[in-house]
Amino acid sequence: MKRHPVGGVIHAYQKYDPASFPPPTQEAPDLITPAFEQAMMYGEFRELSEEELARAVELDPSQIKGLGPSIDFLKQMLLERKRKILETYEAQSVQKKARKAFHSAAKQVRPPEDLVKTFREAINREQPYLLEALWYRGEDRGGTFSTDLLKVASRMADKHQLEELAGKYDFTGSESMSIPKALEIKEELEQIDELLKQLDEAAKTAKIGLIDMEKLNQFVPTEDMQQLEEMRRQVENIIREQAERQGLERGANGQFRLTPQAYKVFQGRLLERIFSELAPSRSGRHQGDVVGEGAVELQQTKPYEFGDSIANMDIPQTVINTLLRQGDQRPLRLHGDDIEIHKTRNHPKCATCVVMDMSGSMRYDGQYMNVKRMALALQGLIQTEYPGDFLRFIEMYTFAKMRAPGEVINLMPKPVTIHDPWVRLKVDMSDEHISETQIHQHFTNIQRSLQLARQNLAATDTPNRQIVLITDGLPTAHNEGEWLYMLYPPDPQTEQATMREAMLCSQEGITINIFLVPSWSQSEEDIRFASRLAKTTKGRVFFTSGNNLDRFVLWDYVQNRREIIS
Fold this sequence. Notes:
The protein is an alpha/beta fold. The chain has 17 helices and 13 strands. A 6-stranded mixed β-sheet has the order 7-6-5-9-12-13, with helices on both faces. A 3-stranded antiparallel β-sheet has the order 8-11-10. A two-stranded antiparallel sheet has the order 1-2. Residues 182-245 form a coiled coil. InterPro entries: vWFA_dom_sf. It comes from Roseiconus lacunae.
């Protein structure tokens, strides 16, 4: 029997092939940034589950089109259910029932004589907190007073919920509801509204993980739910695959953790965002390099000039020039005019210490996150584009500590442990019985931070040295020999010690650039102090909102290098 080969079209995908979801031309979703933002907020890397990743990541909605039931279709089903409910019932009669039940329960209560006035006030004003206070006062009185109060509180809560129901939804039907039925309808309508919000978000960002599948299952047919669940699994699959590509390593317990590769990806995205916001008049961060003797060779060449280093000679082009001039004559004899030299980029070395304020006030408005984001971006910039530059990070609080770039993520503002309006403390740090853990951590020690930065910069072999001081106000701590002083409100003694240290920095040629971020407690005196400190060291003060801190620091760093070069 002759066998016929299989032919014809068996199946054709009308949308995207799930095996290659999303399309290879689609930019990969950003999985690193949400993980880093979470780590910067809480000061630690917590391993993320697949569901947490799926909820954090935004995809292009076109990627999920055709893979399951339409988001619009699901929304229409929910809206139709909501419309039927509102067109079936009316809410006026059940409000009357709730009001009557509340007052009936209140009439049955017999409060003790000393609580009668408060009870009447609670009923007339319909205040749950007054009933709660009465319950605590009457708990040990005996009788049924406490039990009756609980009944009244329950009826009051029903009345308030049904008033909220009538005010929130426009009922147009004629069927009356019992109180339990009305509360059940309220819960159902609120679930529908919540699901509609989730579906709207999923339509914008393809965050299928946001949708509460258990609640949605109450309103959607089983077949559509199965398709939606399949779509959710495919989204999780692509996120899992992209997570591993971007540096999120899967552990033995199935959780994801960040790797050094993820650091590089996150820093690259930070730099891309910062420099994409340059004003149109700027041409980018590569402008301003001076051609001359240097370590970085460029593709462009130039004829040899007296004084050029032969180490940068373009040998192939030099030989070609000789052949063009000499022809087939042998041996080849080089002339000075034949030699081509690679142009080089002159990159002078810069040394920078970044002092990051982690005192108690930096928790305000999440300023500490802006500081950490800036530090990671600056470290990424120097590592990728200026690898010869010197960079150190210093954490500033009551003390000052050197921090490695890998520790920046873990830094957190110190909790305020003393709330007195007037603080005058000093500690002998030479006492072996005293440790730093016993001392209040939330003060701001600019003087010690500048001293530590100066000691680090003094050993660098470049005249281009600067301290980037990021703080929100005046210093409130300083060191004098072995003694540590913590003075609040800020004291002239602390300012004088800080200014003395700033003068020492200035004498060693170290510039102090201050980035003053806003704070709830900031005053005119904070601004005046920053100006005095910068003026003393011929530095500058930048007043910037916290969310622009990374942009201002990096732009200033690049601009300073341009000025040094030129």
